[in-house]
Amino acid sequence: MQLERKSYSPQDTIHLAKQIGTLLQPGDVLTLDGELGAGKTHFTKGIASALGIKEMVNSPTFTIMKEYEGRLPLYHMDVYRLEEEEAEEIGLEEYLEGDGVSVIEWADKITSLLPPEKLEITLGRETDTTRVIQLHGVGDRFIGLLKELEKHEDVSD
Question: How far is CA 109 from CA 57, 126, 143, in A?
């Protein structure tokens, strides 16, 4: 199942991610794809907010992963600089199978490590301020999540 939403501001992106974040469960994996500046970190901030995380969320570009504690642990990963073998060696798979929520930027670099069920999110830049956010639910768990999300039509507060 696939849904598409438009975001007209960083706040809209955060709001949509908060809606999704309230529906997340232990072990859920979300992949984020989009060019630099598309809103991936803003999206992750919304997930973190929904999980009750008060800590400042920023991109883990140079640290590979940042862990935050909330209602569920949040594992925010940026695997752009990793090869699949390196990701295995440092044990990223353990986080994907763990008790938290994994949000992975550039997940196409580690496809063989990803679980069969996941929420694939693509953020595209339409204008300087407008983003098109495509949500693709893979597996029953995330098809159900998107059906629940579909009940909330607008993105803006």
Answer: 22, 25, 24
Cβ neighbours of 154 (radius 10 Å)? 10
pLDDT of residue 155: 55
Q: Is residue 136 part of a domain?
A: yes
Question: What Rg, from alpha-carbon coordinates, does the chain have?
Answer: 14
Yes or no: say if 4 and 139 are a contact pair by the CB < 8 Å rule.
Answer: no
**Structural domain of 112:** 2-149
**135-145 pLDDT tens trace:** 999 999 999 99
Which band of pLDDT confidence, cut at 50, 70 and 90, is reported for residue 120?
Answer: very high
In a domain, 154, yes or no: no
Cα distance between residue 40 and residue 5, in whole Å: 15
The Cα–Cα gap between 131 and 143 comes to 22
DSSP state of 153: -
Give the span between the Cα atoms of 129 and 60, in whole angstroms: 23
Total domains, the chain? 1
What is the pLDDT of the chain when averaged over all its residues?
93
